Amino acid sequence: MPSNSRPEKEGSEKTIGMFLNFIPFRQEVRTVGSLSELIQMTFENEKDSLSHRNYPLPALLKDLETDRIFDTIFNYTNFKKYKDLSTPENGMKLLNDIKWFEHTDFDLLVNVGYDVENVLTITFNANGKKISKDTLERYKSIYANVFERMSANEDSTIDNFLTYEVI
Question: Is 119 exposed, middle or buried (0-12, 13-18, 19+ CB in 10 A)?
Fold first, then answer.
């Protein structure tokens, strides 16, 4: 799970830099009944993991004597609040039309989030040597299906959301 690891010291908000770290996050989904229970359990699990957010991933890999402990990253962002910051009064300008390229060492990176216009986007970045375009299309279909079901009824049983196919 991507995590903010900005130092918690007075004045650190003025420090320029990207203070991100990745921490392992495992979530069991078959032990809950409804989507709302899963959301609450995930939130509690995330809170419990925050005490580890400043331990650098490279140090963890060294401790475990490995070069990789996970192949997939899920990242959620919410930029819709930044739209309100872009005003002539505060001198900030929102840059909407930036084209960017993201390189990752993970086999699969799933970015889910709201842009400044409150539009939900889902982006998949994949290692083409390990994950085919057809597989990515299946992932896209599965994510779309799950989000559609979630928005329709968050108190459905979790089994209604766990439709998948063996690839």
Answer: exposed
Among candidates 108, 107, 128, 120, which has minimal Cα distance to 151?
120
Output the six-digit token pair for 110.
Answer: 């799933």
The residues pairing with 76 across neighbouring beta strands, listed in sequence order, are 112
Sorted by sequence, the CB contacts under 8 Å of residue 106 that are 6+ apart come out as 70, 71, 72, 73, 127
Task: Specify the 3-state DSSP secondary structure of 76.
Answer: strand
Collapsed DSSP state (helix, strand, coil) of residue 93: coil
The Cα 108–Cα 131 span in angstroms is: 8
Q: Which two tokens stand for residue 94?
A: 């929102």
Q: Which amino acid is residue 27, in one-letter code?
A: Q
Q: Which residues pair with 84 in a beta bridge?
A: none
- Please give the Cα distance from 38 to 157 (Å, whole number): 10
How far is the C-alpha of 73 from the C-alpha of 21, rounded, in Å?
12
Which tens digit of pLDDT belongs to each residue from 117-164?
778 788 888 888 899 989 988 888 888 877 777 777 656 665 555 544
- Alpha-carbon gap, residue 46 to 41, rounded angstroms: 9
What pTM was estimated for this model as a whole? 0.65
